[in-house]
Design a protein that fits this description.
Shape: globular
Distance between the termini: 18 Å
Structural class: mainly alpha
Oligomer: single chain
Order of helices and strands: HEEHHHHHHHHHHHHHH
Strand content: under 5%
Length: 302
């Protein structure tokens, strides 16, 4: 018994060492390249930064930049609430979409490898270089304008909404559903990594568990809730954190656009740093609280 415990302890120690080796490049890079700018931006958020000839001259002014962000600036508070609301809705939609796509891709059918590759293509298309080319492409921009002018704002969900309104059915309850359907392309293109993570979790579940459940008379629906969900519950936590962080880094994030505009166009490094720290702390708090809630339902199988 003691020998078996020593083997398990040795295995856990080797896994821990492997984990530290994998995260060592990030830790080293963070310490070398990010620690100094991290604390510099925090200090700048309390200063009025005067830009000189090749230098910065921060003048400490307390929490004035933070007061300006909440009490004076007419846009920041509104954009913050809108983006956080959009983040909550989109993150849930991405989680649901990626999970059910992973369930489908985990089945055995012809052409499964091709379908998996197709679902991974959005990850490549949404990479930094490709996304930058798409954003800066004047032809794509003109084509999008032409499509919007031609369709005159008509969409499938708009037509359905008009039918419901004509039939006397309230549409306010369906507004979020219509919003998600209208953004199905954005949801799909943001779900590539999450699908892979869910798929890797599904493939670790032993087939013998499902076979035993079938023998006991469990339906597929019961197996989904009693076996699949508990066994990959840790993947939900990982995907939730990844989805929120990924949303905060998107190019269409209006809060980031606002911060960039103040920093680049107005050359106001103090105010932009304050807004950055406000956004950062709110996101970190949201991630921490939601992760704490989700982690209570996580099941770890030894």
């Amino acid at each position: 018994m003691r020998k078996q415990k020593n083997k398990l302890a040795g295995l856990q120690r080797r896994k821990a060492i492997a984990g530290y080796i994998f995260i060592a490049p990030f830790i080293l890079g963070f310490l070398v390249f990010m620690v100094k700018p991290f604390f510099q931006s925090l200090y700048m958020s309390f200063c009025n930064v005067e830009v000189g000839a090749g230098s910065f001259n921060p003048v400490f002014q307390g929490i004035d930049n933070y007061k300006r962000a909440f009490a004076i600036d007419p846009q920041f508070s509104r954009l913050l609430v809108e983006e956080l609301s959009r983040m909550a809705v989109d993150s849930v939609a991405i989680m649901v979409f990626s999970f059910f796509v992973a369930l489908i891709l985990n089945q055995k059918f012809k052409g499964r490898a091709l379908v998996r590759a197709i679902f991974f293509l959005p990850v490549i298309l949404s990479s930094g270089v490709i996304l930058g080319l798409e954003t800066d492409n004047a032809l794509m921009a003109q084509l999008q304008v032409a499509i919007e002018e031609t369709t005159s704002g008509i969409s499938i969900t708009g037509a359905v909404e008009e039918i419901l309104r004509t039939a006397g059915v309230g549409v306010r309850a369906f507004e979020k559903v219509f919003e998600i359907i209208d953004k199905i392309y954005d949801i799909a293109i943001s779900s590539g990594i999450q699908i892979i993570i869910f798929l890797s979790g599904l493939q670790t579940i032993s087939a013998s568990m499902y076979e035993a459940a079938d023998i006991e008379g469990c339906t597929k629906w019961e197996s989904l809730w009693k076996i699949t969900f508990p066994m990959i519950s840790s993947m939900f936590l990982v995907n939730w954190i990844y989805t929120i962080i990924d949303f905060c880094m998107r190019s269409d994030n209006e809060v980031i656009e606002k911060i960039t505009k103040v920093m680049v166009d107005e050359i106001n490094y103090g105010f932009s740093s304050a807004m950055t720290w406000i956004y950062f702390l709110i996101v970190i708090a949201g991630v921490g609280i939601s992760s704490l809630i989700i982690s209570k339902g996580v099941y770890y199988y030894d």
